[in-house]
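Holo model, zinc ion. Inputs:
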Amino acid sequence: MRVNTFKRAAVAFALALPGAAVATVVAAPAAQADGCYTWPRTLTQGRSGEDVRQLQIRVAGWAGYGGVVRVDGRYGPETATAVKRFQAAYGLPADGVAGPRTFAKIYGLQDNDCTPKHFSYAELDNGCGKGGWGGGPLSSSATRENAVRTMWKLEALRRSLGDKPLYVTSGFRNLACSRQVGGTANSQHLYGNAADLTSRDRTLCEIARSARDQGFSGIYGPGYPDHGDHTHVDSRKENNRDSIANTTDWSASRCGVN
Ligand code: ZN
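Output:
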């Protein structure tokens, strides 16, 4: 991903210098949609590969009620259904085939650093762990990838709530940070898998209810202890490193979520 950005930067640099050794510059790569990732082909059920995995990360927030899109690089029925929901949410023909129009929509939502348009790495890094993704139970890169996956689900949640801003009041917490705030031993915040949310336009209950459709297996909101001022969402079901992996826990009794 970064290679493309670097190549483009190198080409731009060479072009900016008359007489520079342009001949030594490797041919410019095919036109890129952005600096993050460009899909090389149309994807349909039965396909597999890294391009499918990259697609699954972007549509995982369209899993449907209680669902999860497995990010396994195989384009099966659950991926096709999520693609259909993504297409419908953005006004495209919902055929479940990821082609140029679907990718164009994703490029429009995707920043060069691979985060979705309305969320950023800085926002997902909690205050006391500031400056990186280390210090948790996973490697920095694994934690960071979890944060990206969380953000794409948040982008879907935001869309489903009418494209009004959602604020992340707490995201990744390293172990020291988690101890400071009294986090539980299996807090999904340790993995980059969780976000605490508020909104000026939507109630915490609206967030909690909608999150059930956007691939979140952990939801705590009003009615759950200490969750009167934010709604917590996480992806514990997909966290195969934790004791609560493959479980779902929704609790926001004042919202009818359980
Ligand atoms: Zn939380």
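The helical segments are 2-16, 50-59, 77-89, 100-109, 121-124, 140-160, 175-180, 204-211. Residues 1-31 have pLDDT under 50 and may be disordered.
Archived with the compound record.
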